[in-house]
């Protein structure tokens, strides 16, 4: 493979991404970059950017991006090697002879091996569970009994049990003729970085095989079950991404549910493995789950091919509703009808079905609400609707949702519904909607609260300076203490830059992006591309004054956070003293002996974040 990667790097150095993209997307110059309408999501204002200097593209609307090969992969729906070949061909650059003959076959063979070893693992874990189930005292038997999962259900979903040993599966795979490399490549084992030893990834856990739509196991979710498990063990661990598995690509249970989804005309979308298993047990065989991640465009596309409607049956809690809102945004792009099954708090589909059974759940489905109506309720619940300010907040919450509604008739109907419920002027609401539609892609991205756009801008600017301006690095690494940065993501990459700089290694967007996962939904890669495309002041306009005021700002907000943390801890410690007399005295006493705290308090006071603090005159 490495010869192929060398070739890819040479190819990328020779082609111009503006030309490559320009063949598919009309681009217009915009400052240092080029801009056009994103070919990967529907939009009316361009938020798709291409940088000739950095040789990457990035869409602020849907978040996809990468180098020229990534672009070809996406737009031509090709695997990486095929995109590489196409790009080389287009530019008349011959693919090295030996690669052309072997690359395809080698990759195909490697994939076949991964499917085979996953199948073996699935059978291995399932047999191990069936053996354990014969012993009623086995903790796995007791766990499944507690979760009301019988042997038949376990078989239907190929549930398994990973043994407690360190190499049980790796050894079994070896006996079946698989190289350790294949087992590691499938994510079933891990190679220790120092000793080089290979050990099983999943140990002493209940195994949920995740299958593709053809029913081939491509990944595994593994849950702790043993009552004596260490409390800091993560509840679930999952397979990493492999050559045959990308997160957000498969829907859990789809291979068992697809016929029912077509027959029913809609899909029941849930959050967890157990929700789906339970739903199938009670006859709702059109249930699938996203398993842990927010619904992706790919999953939305899969659902669109099977059905015209999707019913969300998510947890009623805050996290569930947030995930549902993001899922709606995806499904609206596909013009799918969306409804919400409202589960009484604190139930999830699993617990509800266990407690009430089939008929009440069927009634909940029958009473499912239109998604917009549902979110309108949530907005009113959250912000109220009695005052002008509350109405404005509700409208602000609803507008990004309304914008995603493709169908003009439906959009108009929702606007009318919102205007009536909130008692606001319908024409004004429409105007607001249209004006927002014209807003810049960056603003739009912000209103849609993409995670990466929410990092503090000044901190992103700092990162940009460090990456793009070599002569700023020494200054930044000397003066900025990473702890001052509020955003953990900026801090992480700032520190990474510092390490690369200290080791005298190449530092640029390409080298940082190469450290991210290849996954297109990777939040770090997306964040880095956004900062790379962020427009800032040209560096020659930065005076020493702006730099030092910038530093002061960073420092101050760090102190403010520190003091606020400190105060809230104290308040927490003395709940019986709501006026804060006790902690006021303690702060006073402590600051006498602690110069750093005193400095922080003085700063905080000067910036009047915490007016309630006792006075600390000089
Ligand atoms: Zn896009």
Automatic annotation (TrEMBL):
The keyword Transcription applies. Its EC number is 2.7.7.101. GO terms for biological process: DNA replication, synthesis of primer. GO terms for molecular function: DNA binding; DNA-directed RNA polymerase activity; zinc ion binding. SUPFAM superfamilies: DNA primase core, Zinc beta-ribbon. It comes from the Bacteria. Residues 265-346 form the Toprim domain. The keyword Metal-binding applies. Its cofactor is Zn(2+). RNA polymerase that catalyzes the synthesis of short RNA molecules used as primers for DNA polymerase during DNA replication. Monomer. Interacts with DnaB. Belongs to the DnaG primase family. This is DNA primase.
């Amino acid at each position: 493979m490495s010869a192929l990667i060398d070739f890819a790097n040479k190819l990328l150095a020779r082609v111009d991404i503006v030309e490559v993209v320009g063949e598919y997307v009309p681009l217009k110059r915009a400052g240092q970059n080029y801009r056009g309408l994103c070919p990967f999501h529907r939009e009316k204002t361009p938020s798709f950017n291409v940088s000739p200097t950095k040789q990457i593209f990035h869409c602020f609307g849907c978040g996809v991006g990468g180098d020229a090969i990534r672009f070809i992969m996406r737009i031509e729906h090709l695997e990486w090697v095929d995109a590489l070949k196409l790009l080389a061909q287009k530019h008349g650059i011959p693919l090295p002879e030996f690669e052309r003959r072997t690359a395809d076959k080698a990759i195909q063979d490697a994939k076949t091996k991964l499917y085979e070893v996953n199948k073996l693992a699935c059978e291995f874990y399932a047999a191990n569970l069936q053996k354990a189930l014969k012993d009623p005292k086995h903790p796995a038997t007791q766990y499944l009994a507690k979760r009301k999962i019988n042997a038949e259900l376990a078989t239907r979903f190929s549930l398994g049990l990973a043994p407690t040993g360190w190499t049980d599966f790796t050894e079994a795979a070896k006996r079946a003729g698989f190289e350790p490399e294949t087992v590691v490549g499938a994510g079933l084992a891990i190679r220790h970085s120092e000793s080089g030893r290979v050990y099983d990834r999943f140990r002493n856990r209940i195994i949920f095989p995740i299958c593709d739509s053809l029913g081939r196991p491509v990944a595994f979710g593994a849950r702790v079950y043993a009552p004596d498990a260490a409390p800091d063990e993560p509840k679930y661990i999952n397979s990493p991404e492999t050559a045959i598995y990308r997160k957000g690509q498969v829907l859990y249970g789809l291979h068992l549910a697809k016929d029912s989804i077509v027959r029913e005309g809609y899909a029941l979308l849930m959050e967890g493995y157990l929700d789906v298993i339970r739903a199938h047990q009670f006859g709702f065989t059109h249930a699938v789950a996203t398993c842990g991640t927010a619904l992706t465009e790919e999953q939305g596309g899969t659902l669109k091919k099977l059905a015209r409607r999707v019913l969300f049956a998510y947890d009623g809690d805050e996290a569930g509703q947030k995930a549902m809102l993001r899922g709606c945004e995806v499904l609206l792009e596909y013009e799918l009808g969306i409804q919400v099954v409202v589960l009484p708090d604190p139930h999830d589909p699993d617990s509800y079905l266990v407690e009430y059974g089939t008929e009440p759940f069927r009634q909940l489905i029958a009473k499912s609400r239109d998604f917009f109506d549902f979110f309108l309720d949530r907005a009113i619940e959250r912000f109220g609707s009695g005052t002008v300010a509350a109405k404005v907040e509700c409208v602000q919450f609803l507008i990004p949702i309304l914008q995603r509604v493709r169908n003009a008739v439906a959009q108009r109907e929702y606007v009318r519904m919102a205007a009536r419920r909130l008692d606001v002027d319908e024409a004004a609401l429409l105007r607001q909607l249209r004006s927002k539609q014209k807003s810049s892609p960056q603003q739009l991205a912000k209103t849609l609260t993409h995670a990466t756009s929410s990092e503090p801008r000044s901190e992103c600017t700092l990162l940009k300076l460090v990456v793009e301006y070599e002569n700023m690095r020494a200054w930044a690494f000397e003066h900025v203490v990473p702890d001052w940065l509020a955003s953990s993501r900026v801090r992480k990459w700032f520190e990474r830059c510092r390490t690369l700089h200290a080791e005298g290694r190449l530092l640029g967007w390409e080298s940082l992006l190469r450290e991210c996962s290849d996954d297109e939904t990777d939040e770090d890669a997306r964040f880095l591309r956004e900062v790379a495309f962020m427009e800032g002041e040209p560096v020659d306009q930065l005076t020493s004054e702006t730099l030092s005021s910038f530093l002061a700002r960073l420092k101050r907000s760090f102190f403010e956070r520190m003091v606020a943390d400190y105060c809230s801890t104290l308040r927490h410690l003395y709940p019986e003293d709501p006026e804060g007399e006790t902690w006021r005295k303690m702060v006073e006493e402590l600051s006498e002996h602690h110069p750093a705290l005193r400095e922080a308090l003085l700063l905080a006071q000067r910036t009047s974040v915490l007016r309630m603090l006792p006075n600390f005159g000089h």
